[in-house]
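FYI - complex with copper (II) ion, inputs then prediction.
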Amino acid sequence: MASLTLYPEEERLRGGERVAFNWYMISAAILLVLMMTFGVTMRMAQARWIGVPPDWFYKLLSMHGAGMVGTMGMVTMGVMWYFLRKYVRLHLWAFVANYVLFLIGALCIIASIFLGNYGGLWTFLYPLPTSSMGLWTPGAAALFMLGYLFIGVGALLFYFDAAAAIIKVHGNLGRALGLQWLFGGTIDSDHPKTVVASTMVIIANSIGIIAGAVVLVMGLVNIYFPQVTLDALLAKNLIYWFGHMYINATIYMGVIVVYALLPRYTQKPYPISRPFLWSWAVSTVFVIVVFPHHLLMDFAQPRWLSIMGQVVSWGAGFPVFLVTVYGALTNLYQSNIRWNLPSRLMILAMFGWAAGIVPAILDGTIRNNLVMHNTQWVPGHFHFYLLIGVLPMCLALMFHVMGRRSDEQVPPNSTADNLIGLAMLLVGGLTLAFSFLRGGLDSVARRMDVHLDAWLGSDVAGAIGGSLVLLAMLYFAIRITAGLLRKPAAGGSGAGAADAAG
Ligand code: HEM
Ligand SMILES: [Cu+2]
């Protein structure tokens, strides 16, 4: 069946497309190694293996948080672009502009932290950026926020271009989501799952980014005109609306890899279904209104918002997650799966996402949040599904494309790939995630540079797990950089090879 060949012709990257894709993926791999180095440094500091001065700890924590969230956003947009461009006409300039604005934003953030000493964390909670107790200047805080604005504008450009292209083909976003088939009718079996997922992300993340832009501008105004004070609770709501959306969008963009590639590796069709459309439609709404679960302990918050946050938390992640894991398992069942690095990474991602959701939902429940709030339980749940869920989704695409560039046009699958890369990511990732969750059980406060003696056990485990992950990622980054920079294999690449610039 044509659609199940590993490397269909219409997916080939041509000229500028290949260069842009390479920049996205290789930058992401390098940034991940860097940000993980900061992560390991912090975990080692908590374990007292090394000494890190407190101001440096919070600078590293700010860089790690902002850098990881930004990098995951950037790379998963690359994933969405890679598959969506087959179905609708995306403009390469929008994809490139997003990258350039991301880089400018990243440079602002790096400068504000390492030159300006900003240490107010990636959530820039009001009034923290302006209340630095002399550690950084208002200018440094402003530069940090300006960096976010650049990144947000880039993402909006990319999403609006994608929205226009989708509307051109499907008429409107509702039809692209497949709403017309929710209550009956024959679903067009050619309707791409990629379009459904992309549309959901465009709607939800655009709203989130605009909420973020509003509070960033409010924050900037406050920095330069301190007489204009903000409502702290409103600012916090807007920030978490943005923050929750942005990081969750990375899962919903990343999972496109599974929809698009898994059936090619299992060599079994993965049809679109009504439950699939229902789950994406429901999640489109839920993911937008679920963010109050970050404010469950803010007693000034209207009660109904907290209740909504809790109830929707139970439902928000579930539909897409259930339908995807069920779909993936059905697709795997009695299939002739080709076992190699990309397919293993996809299975790992399904596991990481599935398992990581459990501690997330536990924490989104008010009764539990009373004791888990701001403990290491929180980094426990999100490192779980980001590190063992979203990251492997992205790596699967990188290694898949790398395979296309190899002489034999087969996906990578060396012993080193599986042992140094995959196995170490799994073992290290689980150790790190459980070290944080265990910390949560012991009520270890999150975001603390100095830990009590009684907490050191989980810190040491975390330092070991984090180091393994870092080594695995270093190995992956070298493989990816070398593999993607290769000219496409001579066989069958035709014109594509002639204009290869990347
Ligand atoms: C080698 C891998 C990693 C290590 C060792 C690591 C380590 C850490 C540590 C020690 C913290 C602070 C925990 C605390 O509050 O006590 C942290 C926070 C965080 N990490 Fe990681 N991390 C790693 C990978 C990642 C990845 C892959 C992502 C995202 C894709 C990520 C995103 C974050 C975020 C968003 C925070 C929260 C920052 C904040 O509280 O302001 N980390 N990480
Ligand atoms: Cu959230």
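Residues 138-170 form the longest helix (33 residues). The two ends are 31 Å apart (CA to CA).
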